[in-house]
Every structure is written in structure tokens, then in C-alpha cells.
């Protein structure tokens, strides 16, 4: 039913009943996004999410019927880009899928970046390829939300950004995700970027304010 409904939205969909079937589909074809249920036979969705994120930046939208926030937060910590709680309205699911595709630059005609490269503290963001490399030149895998957060920080370096402002930068007005999810994404960014995530230097917490990016940032086209 879900495949037929998404097909009406001009989306090509493959259905996999478990992690093994998903792996077979992914070996045979390329995909723009994964809609991943938490409750699956065999390997659960959280475990699948963890290994998908370890391989790359493919957008992941989690489906969950569980009422406890901890499962959704854990999904975000493992690298999911967004989540929808069952039962859901199809219109909301479609909106979230399109939002993730748009932010991942998969839809045609994306807005051209103001500059090709953003650099700070030896790190480089390639805005066209949507890739991040550390000071040693190694590529660092990031979700679309993490990358959007990092770009928002870079373009507002030295300014305090509230959670509301950061939420707008990563969810583009979609209803549902809370300010708490911003903290989860920032914690993941710190784990990937800070030498000591418990005492962050690049992304500092501003008491009663939000967060501040402290690095000196430069943008260029080459």
C-alpha cells in the first residue's frame, strides 16, 4: 500500500521485508533514500541504521510505532536524518521524504551554493558534493541534518544561534522534530569534530542561549 501511494507521487520504490532483502536490493540498484522501520524480523532497524550510516550519507527516515522518545532519539544518535511515528498521514511522510531529498541535493535544480568550499581549522566542506573532509584530508560521513547544522554554524561563526534557529536550518519548516533533536545532532557533530567532545572548543554551548561556532571561517569557489 505504501509503495503504491508513493508511486502516485512519482517515486520509484522497492520493498524489503528485512535487512538481508534490503542488502540485496542495494547491491542491485542505487537509491536516493531509505525509509526504515525499527521493528523488523532478524536485524532490527536501529542496527541497520548504524551500519548504513557507517557506509555513507544516504538519507534515512525512520518509521516507529513506539511511543517512547528514547527510541527516536537513539535513532537520531545512530545517524537517522528524520523519523515519523506510526500511524502517520501519508501527506506528512511524503513531505518529509521530499524535504530530505531536497536537502541532500537529489532533486533537480537545487539552489546553487554561494561558494563551492567552506574552510575552517583545516576542515573543508564541499558544498556541491556535500562532503566534509577533516584536517588530514579524510572524508567524514555526516547526515544531511548534521551537514546543514555545520553549514549554518559556519555562516554564523561567532554568533549565538538558538535551538529554534538551528531547527529551522535543518528541518526547513517541517512539523514534528523538536528542539531536543538539535542537541542530538550537535552531540554527534562534536563526536566527529572535537578532539575532546566533553570539552568542546569548536561548538560551544551558550548558557540560556543556544550554541556558538568559534572557528574562523573562509569561503571560496576554488
Automatic annotation (TrEMBL):
InterPro entries found in the cross-reference section: CheY-like_superfamily (IPR011006), OmpR/PhoB-type_DNA-bd (IPR001867), Sig_transdc_resp-reg_C-effctor (IPR016032), Sig_transdc_resp-reg_receiver (IPR001789), WalR-like (IPR039420), WH-like_DNA-bd_sf (IPR036388)
SMART domains assigned to the protein according to its UniProt record, in alphabetical order: REC, Trans_reg_C
Alphabetic keyword roster: Activator, Cytoplasm, DNA-binding, Phosphoprotein, Transcription, Transcription regulation, Two-component regulatory system
Location of 4-aspartylphosphate modifications: 37
Subcellular location: Cytoplasm
Pfam families linked: Response_reg (PF00072), Trans_reg_C (PF00486)
Record GO terms (molecular function): phosphorelay response regulator activity; transcription cis-regulatory region binding
Residue intervals of the Response regulatory domain: 1-101
Gene Ontology BP term (one): regulation of DNA-templated transcription
Residue ranges: DNA binding: 115-215
Any one cellular-component term (Gene Ontology): protein-DNA complex
Superkingdom as given in the UniProt entry: Bacteria
Signal peptide feature range: none
Domain OmpR/PhoB-type, residue spans: 115-215
Protein name: Regulatory protein VirG
The organism of origin for this protein: Pleomorphomonas diazotrophica
Lineage: Bacteria, Pseudomonadati, Pseudomonadota, Alphaproteobacteria, Hyphomicrobiales
Amino acid at each position: 500500500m505504501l509503495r503504491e501511494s508513493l508511486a502516485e507521487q512519482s517515486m520509484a520504490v522497492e520493498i524489503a521485508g528485512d535487512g538481508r532483502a534490503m542488502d540485496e536490493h542495494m547491491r542491485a540498484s542505487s537509491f536516493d533514500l531509505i525509509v526504515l522501520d525499527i521493528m523488523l524480523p532478524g536485524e532490527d532497524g536501529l542496527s541497520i541504521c548504524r551500519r548504513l550510516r557507517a557506509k555513507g550519507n544516504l538519507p534515512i527516515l525512520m518509521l516507529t510505532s513506539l511511543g517512547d522518545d528514547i527510541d527516536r532519539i537513539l535513532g537520531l544518535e545512530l545517524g537517522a536524518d528524520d523519523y515519523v511515528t506510526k500511524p502517520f498521514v501519508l501527506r506528512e511522510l511524503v513531505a518529509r521524504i521530499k524535504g530530505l531529498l531536497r536537502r541532500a541535493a537529489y532533486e533537480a535544480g537545487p539552489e546553487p551554493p554561494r561558494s563551492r568550499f567552506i574552510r575552517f581549522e583545516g576542515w573543508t566542506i564541499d558544498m556541491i558534493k556535500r562532503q566534509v573532509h577533516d584536517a588530514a584530508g579524510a572524508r567524514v560521513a555526516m547526515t544531511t541534518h548534521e551537514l546543514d547544522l555545520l553549514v549554518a554554524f559556519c555562516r554564523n561563526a561567532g554568533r549565538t544561534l538558538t535551538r529554534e534557529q538551528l531547527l529551522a536550518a535543518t528541518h526547513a519548516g517541517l512539523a514534528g522534530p523538536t528542539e531536543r533533536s538539535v542537541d542530538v545532532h550537535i552531540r554527534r557533530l562534536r563526536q566527529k569534530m572535537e578532539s575532546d567532545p566533553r570539552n568542546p572548543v569548536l561548538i560551544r554551548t551558550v548558557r540560556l542561549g543556544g550554541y556558538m561556532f568559534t572557528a574562523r571561517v573562509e569561503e571560496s569557489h576554488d
